[in-house]
Amino acid sequence: MGSADAGELARSLAWGVVVPRGVPVDGGVLHGCPGSPCVAAIGAFDGMHAGHRQLLDRARRDAASRGLPLVAVTFDPDPSGILGPEPQPALLSRDDRLRMLWSTGVDGILVLDFTAAVASLDYRRFMDGLAATLGLASVHVGEGFRLGAGGEGTVARLAAWGAGAGVDVFGHRLLALDGSPVSATRIRRDVAAGDVQEARRLLTRYHFSHGTVVHGRGEGTSFGFPTANVVCPAGSVAPASGVFGGYVVVDGLAWPAAVNAGLPPTFADGGEGASGPLLECALVGFSGDLYGAAVEVMLTEELRASRRFGDVGDLRSVVLGNIEQVRRRLGEAPVRLEGPR
């Protein structure tokens, strides 16, 4: 794989996208001033993957045919954390999800506070409230979408509610690739297994993780290739193990990097404060102090599986080889990303 251009890296991060400041509304926050009535697309939108983009495209065509604005309706936190036995790791933070949504050209984003009380609402009451807030002309969801107490708000029941409320409801078939629906669950599994190229195909962009650079074990410096030890927030989605090529974004510059995911098997202890996934990044061509810096790490391809080395000299030789692979494939100069973050 060759180096990525600035446009592809910026699109993967929704870099330079500025979401309008939110205005409090009943039960949530509305970004943008879409006007009423409108067309709404409803979903969790974690990851903003190819299936989400297809849903939004279909809703956008409907909105254009009616001459109405399009509003994406989403939830915070993700409903899986309230409805499921435990929260699912998030592919995107709330802010990243909003930037990704806004980058698709929607006219507004409504973020609804998802609580146990909201989850227990009758679906008709929920939809009545949403219609009162937005002034709905039509609603677009995935075919398996359900809401309300007990998940009783199926597409068929929402359509029946809409018939009485004067709102068209559309349930769209999920996008499938290789015979399986594109879903956040599928992408989380791919990333955890280290298949970052498949994740990129399903996301239509590179997956990335936020993190903070902390002090590590110091082996990299002693070997002649200082590393940035990036600790991601607990609940982040990252490979369980493996060595990858990718980029580390520092102050708008995307530096090529060799990245070790997880604790290297050769060593028994990690960096300080490793409450979430640990990514050890050797930035090609970078010199400077990154301790305490907030960065984004994008993984573009797997270079090799993690393994234990019996000799530190063998480890040093292999890691230097991985860094040289990155240098050949991604270059050694940073890619500048334009616009604000």
Structure description:
The longest helix is centred in the C-terminal third of the chain and has 19 residues. The protein has a seven-stranded mixed β-sheet with strand order 1-2-5-4-3-6-7, with helices on both faces. A six-stranded antiparallel beta barrel has the order 10-11-14-13-12-15. Strands 8-9 form a two-stranded antiparallel ribbon. The protein folds into two domains: 161 residues, HUPs (Rossmann fold), CATH 3.40.50.620; 130 residues, Beta Barrel (Elongation Factor Tu (Ef-tu), domain 3). The model has no long low-confidence stretch (mean pLDDT 91). The chain is built from eleven helices and 16 strands.
Following the backbone from N to C, one meets helices and strands in this order, namely HEEEHEHHEHHEHEEEHHEHEEEEEHE
Oligomer: single chain
Question: What count of domains describes the coordinates?
Answer: 2
Main sheet overview:
7 strands, mixed
Instruction: Identify the CATH homologous superfamily of the largest domain.
Output: HUPs
CATH class membership of the largest domain = Alpha Beta
In the CATH classification, which architecture of the largest domain applies?
3-Layer(aba) Sandwich
- Mean pLDDT, rounded to whole units? 91
> Considering DSSP H and I runs of 4 or more, what fraction of the residues is helical?
25-40%
Q: What is the CATH third-level topology name of the largest domain?
A: Rossmann fold
Specify the number of helices.
11
Number of strands: 16
Q: Within the largest sheet, what's the order of strands?
A: 1-2-5-4-3-6-7
* Structural class computed from helices and strand pairing: alpha+beta
Distance between the termini: 27 Å
Overall shape: it is elongated
Catalytic activity: FMN + ATP + H(+) = FAD + diphosphate; riboflavin + ATP = FMN + ADP + H(+)
EC number: 2.7.1.26, 2.7.7.2
Protein name: Riboflavin biosynthesis protein
GO molecular function: ATP binding; FMN adenylyltransferase activity; riboflavin kinase activity
